[in-house]
Amino acid sequence: MLLFKNSSYSIHRFQRLLSLYQKNNETPSISTSVKLNATLKKLLDSKQYKEALDLFDQKFEKCTDFTIDMAIKACTISKDYKRGFNIQKRLSSNSLNNPFIQVSLIHLYMGYGDIDSATRLFSSTANKSNYIYTAMFKG
Asked: What GO MF annotations does this protein's record show (predicted)?
């Protein structure tokens, strides 16, 4: 019985050591939305818009509304309007109702010169904030 306990304890310790080793030696990956947001922010701050948008497309399932907002802003700044419109098509209704995303979409539409779509989105917004009014009037 003692041999069995020692053997089982040794196996448990070995598994624990192995998992610690794997954890410390794994390649860095973007596993959470927090890490994704931080990585996107770094890329955007260094004006690497294409790389940020490529990463966004690869990890779309982990995106939060904050991530989506950053991606739409990157599309507007880099004048990649087609990509911005594709992002909009993939959004859930909850994300489309997010006021920050609505403001970013209005900026995207106005930058592209699509005043009709910007006006339509502005009109459909239930709770208009100062930010939405500013986005609509300033473009």
From this structure: RNA binding
